[in-house]
Design a protein that fits this description.
Blueprint lengths: L8 H19 L6 E6 L2 E7 L2 H4 L6 H13 L7 E7 L3 H10 L3 E6 L11 H4 L9 E3 L4 H18 L1
Parallel strand pairs: 3-4, 4-5
Antiparallel strand pairs: 1-2, 1-3
Helix pairs in contact: 1-6, 3-4
Bound molecules: zinc ion.
Zinc ion binds next to helix 4.
């Protein structure tokens, strides 16, 4: 879980797709976070946060994307995929990625409140994990953060 790699053009392209998914979430009144799963240069899942519309606290974009990808692959292990998500994952989603045995995670904006990687990376190294994967953070981070800022600004204005 410690190896960090630089983003490629493909990373930026996939993240851009995840950002369009985040915009769909926003139209649904959901916190705008989007995710895509890539395997062998193909998108096998593309979805977004749906906790409110699904009445499901586990329906974060990453969990939705892993479910979709696993069903598409007919396999609960996703050993050769890269998961792209517009916001740094929370503890639950990190757990789901470990369960799925993903190969790599690429995320957009850093989440200083609930993000599990940037804030608690050192403590994570002490946790016994049975799977580790590559992580690249901060890809198209400004755009990803701006979508969230706009959303929360509008929510505050409405209440
Ligand atoms: Zn999450």
């Amino acid at each position: 879980m410690t190896s960090i790699s630089d983003p490629s053009d493909q990373d930026r392209e996939a993240m851009s797709h995840a950002l369009s998914c985040a915009k769909k979430a926003q139209l649904m009144g959901e916190v705008p976070v989007g995710a895509v799963v890539i395997r062998e240069n193909k998108i096998i899942a593309a979805t977004y946060n749906q906790t409110i519309t699904s009445c499901d606290p586990s329906a974060h974009a990453e969990v939705q994307a892993l479910r979709q990808a696993a069903q598409q692959q007919k396999n609960h292990r996703l050993v050769d995929v890269t998961l792209y998500v517009t916001l740094e994952p929370c503890l639950m989603c990190l757990g789901a990625m470990i369960q799925a045995r993903i190969q790599r995670l690429v995320f957009g904006a850093y989440d200083t409140r609930c993000g599990i990687l940037s804030q608690q990376a050192s403590s994570l190294q002490d946790v016994r994990l049975n799977h580790r994967f590559q992580i690249t953070g901060g890809v198209l981070a400004e755009e990803a953060a701006q979508i969230l800022k706009n959303f929360f600004y509008n929510v505050v204005k409405l209440t």
